[in-house]
Amino acid sequence: MPMLGGCGLCSDPPLPPQMSSSPLSKKRRVSGSEPKTGSNCSSGNSVQSDPRAAPANGMAKNGSDVDIDESLYSRQLYVLGHEAMKRLQNASVLVSGLRGLGVEIAKNIILGGVKSVTLHDTEPAQWADLASQFYLREEDLGKNRAEVSQPRLAELNSYVPVSVHTGALTEDFLSPFQVVVLTNSPLEEQLRVGGICHSKGIKMVVADTRGLFGQLFCDFGDDMVVTDTNGEQPLSAMISMITKGCPGEVTCLDEARHGFESGDFVSFTEVDGMKELNHCPPMEIKVLGPYTFSIGDTSSFSEYVRGGIVSQVKMPQKISFKPLSVALAEPDFVVTDFGKFEHPAQLHLAFQALHDFQRQHQRLPRPRSEVGPGLWRARDGLTGEGGVCVTAPLCPCPDAPPLPQACSGKFMPITQWLYFDALECLPEDSKEALTEEQCRPRNSRYDGQIAVFGADLQAKLGQQKYFLVGAGAIGCELLKNFALLGLACGDGGEVTVTDMDTIEKSNLNRQFLFRPWDVTKMKSDTAAAAVRQMNPNIHITSHQDRVGPDTERVYDDDFFEGLDGVANALDNVDARMYMDRRCVYYRKPLLESGTLGTKGNVQVVIPFLTESYSSSQDPPEKSIPICTLKNFPNAIEHTLQWARDEFEGLFKQPAESVNQYISDPKFMERTLKLPGTQPLEVLEAVNKSLVSDRPRSWADCVGWACRHWHCQYSNNIRQLLHNFPPHQKTNSGTLFWSGPKRCPHPLTFDDSNPLHMDYIVAAANLFAQTYGITGTRDVGAVAELLHQVQVPEFTPKSGVRIHISDQELQNANASVDDSRLEELKSSLPNPEDLQSFRMYPIDFEKDDDTNFHMDFIVAASNLRAENYDIPPADRHKSKLIAGKIIPAIATTTAAVVGLVCLELYKVVQGHKRLESYKNGFLNLALPFFGFSEPIACPRNKYYDIEWTLWDRFEVQGVQPSGEEMTLRQFLAYFKSEHRLEITMLSQGVSMLYSFFMPPTKLRERHDQPMTEIVTKVSKKKIGRHVKALVFELCCNDDSECDIEVPYVRYTIR
């Protein structure tokens, strides 16, 4: 969201009604029982012009006394935090100018959840607006842009009142706002409003887009204080040594680099010995190495003994902004592309020249016609008449930080000018220079885009066939841009979008094509219907298929061969890599993108020009060692992962195993073949579920939860301390419980402790659900049942082996107690006697606060954290970590998709030069913007023939006679045609031929058709939809040396 914010200067509003956590139904909204959001427009100059006024329709409203709706804002909260979000909800924002840029900013601000938004515009909608203003329709031409857009924007968030003002921006009118955003305004108006805002402490942003160019200016006053300059979680590290001296030197454990930088400030906790550090204010450090840094004078402190945690402290930073009148003459630029280092200064003058031209001629220059002094960019698209939808989100994307910054100091603001251009999108060949005739208006909804690119490209865009994979946040933005661009809006064009997910309430904060009454509907269907409203000419088909081998009958050779390109809007690497492989095979361009909070990236994959997405991969995430999880946690992440494993091991896996035991006659046979101790573990779980722990009533479920609580948080800890007493030392003389090993202590159950009861209630209900038993939320009733539970006495045992490292665990003999296995097998009831019985495995779902899942995770994790004196995590943080949630805000998504669509222009035009394309990277919190040429596809060679990942051998499997090629003929073909001796041949995981194959098998296969060999070896039939098979080769050249060669596409139909 373009987060443009204020300081909460307005008075507190009355307490508004809470937004319901359940989705609004469309029937209720239409019937009038639910007042329509923001539909209180009148014909006057100003509708609800005072942003502090309570909404007349009684709708939910943001303000300082309203709790944050975490079910709606959850992904955004993980970016901003609760404090910044609360201040955000007190910001009243004015957005002036409702062309493409203004509506994009308003959309993202409203999704972000400010206190109120006022839309200002005095002009009617024109044809050129429709190329970038997605809430205008052809029937709206001639109507005021703000008034038409207001009801559609108001639907985005029922917490945010949206009003309209069509009069002048007077000083009295501007005074109540915390943030004023000016778009599409004359320079004189910018200077006048800028002077008022600066004198009154109102934050001001000026944003403008002209064709392929964008301009942004921020003025946040004389004394802006930034408390968090990057939005990252503070770093922390465990200490192994601190020296006395001036300066003192701190050495951290070598498990991981500390990650600090010189100039950072840190604080200390849990230091044993040098306890003075535990009470020191934040200290500035100087990094000495990846595990060491120096601090201030420690020579007078006590001797360091052991332990301690050092944590980064975010220090406030004061920034002073120049008013627009001064900054215009003394500009400071944020560079977005270091390959265009000189462009910001040039564009600064060019935009002023454009304002001068408009003032003198009372109009803007016509595209591709007039080039006067200072307007040297006009022929490149810097005109007032051109409007490209994809530059709209790119200009406000740096605005994303200002709102939380202005309210709470979150993120580093733009200081103060930012210019952006995308000249690479214009034709590569100078012979194809656009003319005034090609770019003239045609009274078309694409006139704004035609002014920049000409009519020929517009026609070509309409004929495109694209496959969009995913209709989530990125998918919604892409579809919106496709509709505005006119992609697939002409004869022969088609967009196919697939997404198998349904809409959830948490999606509404950034997936802006969805509304509350759409919750539970399919994303792809709903998104397709929404963009048809934006542009009725778009040809779009929605599917609900997961892309993968299972759907290759749907997305087959005919489907992919008919495409012009693919755009990914996925949320996992496996699906991205699958689609990447498909695009490489079918030689289709791929537009890849992703976001993480304020960070985003774009990668363009062009056949025969760039590497593919899979050519480079991120390193795998570092996993938590098993022994750390089981016995030696030292961070809340460890206890949360332990709690997730508990959930799976208690409420999902045993139930699945029991159902398999009952229904699958070969279950026992397969289980006994499992490696290591798995057979024993599986049968123990089945035995507990069917025999020893099987409940008959709700009271039994409560009893089980109580006994399990004692086992995990008391008995197991006592056993651990029996094996490793608190003061035990290792062979080297150091304390066993030191460094990353935190000495635990057992807990004593207390039914008056809310955390203890939270665990019992959640665990008992989940356990009951797996058996189809009805539970209760009544804590008092559960407490009564607990008084009847008998908890067996526990005495630690000798001889219990506890592994202290994963290496020790791997080296231990994984012997299975055969007698115990037999005992378990004999104790299990006969499956025939259980045919009417089944269990109900529970799949973890983090976003339903009524299902006890997160209740259990939070309680289980925090109880274990208490065992080990680890600071607990609240529900919000626990959900982030345990649910592996990806933080997200609307503006990052919009900015990233804007960059994707700039690459789309180049792909559709068929740009051939590698340097024309741009991979993009951004972090709106810093702010940082970076662009680089895509990496060229690596070139390999055999003999004198160069090849890349895009090349392959094309082999026609069926001969002119109608007979298929045999293995013998296949081998001979490569020997004669390519001078390659095949030593191994495979298809997927099936080995079809190898030089070391037994002679009998080789003789058998030599004269068989290739498809027959594939069918026999893979034991799978070749589908009718398959036109060709892919073979992988290992080959020798004439000198009998191994050489790397491309794969084979073996055509069979």
Please describe what this structure looks like.
Residues 1-65 are annotated as: Disordered. Pathway: Protein modification; protein ubiquitination. This is E1 ubiquitin-activating enzyme. The protein is built from 33 helices and 34 strands. The protein is of the alpha/beta class and 1053 residues long. A nine-stranded mixed beta sheet has the order 1-4-3-2-5-6-7-18-17, with helices on both faces. Strand 3, helix 5 (145-154) and strand 4 form a beta-alpha-beta unit. Helix 14 (473-485) packs parallel to helix 15 (523-534), helix 22 packs parallel to helix 27 (818-827) and helix 28 packs across helix 29. It is globular. 43% of the residues are buried. Mean pLDDT is 88; it is low at 1-60, 372-379 and 394-401.
Cα radius of gyration in angstroms:
33 Å
Low-confidence segments, given as residue ranges, are 1-60, 372-379, 394-401
Structural class: alpha/beta
Strand elements, count: 34
| Helical content band | 25-40%
Mean pLDDT: 88
Oligomer state equals single chain
Q: What characterizes the major β-sheet?
A: 9 strands, mixed
In which order are the strands of the major sheet placed? Answer: 1-4-3-2-5-6-7-18-17
Q: How many helical stretches?
A: 33
N→C terminal distance: 50 Å
Shape label:
globular
Work out the strand percent: 15-25%
Region (Disordered): 1-65
Domain Ubiquitin-activating enzyme E1 C-terminal: 917-1048
Active site: 627
GO biological process, one term: protein sumoylation
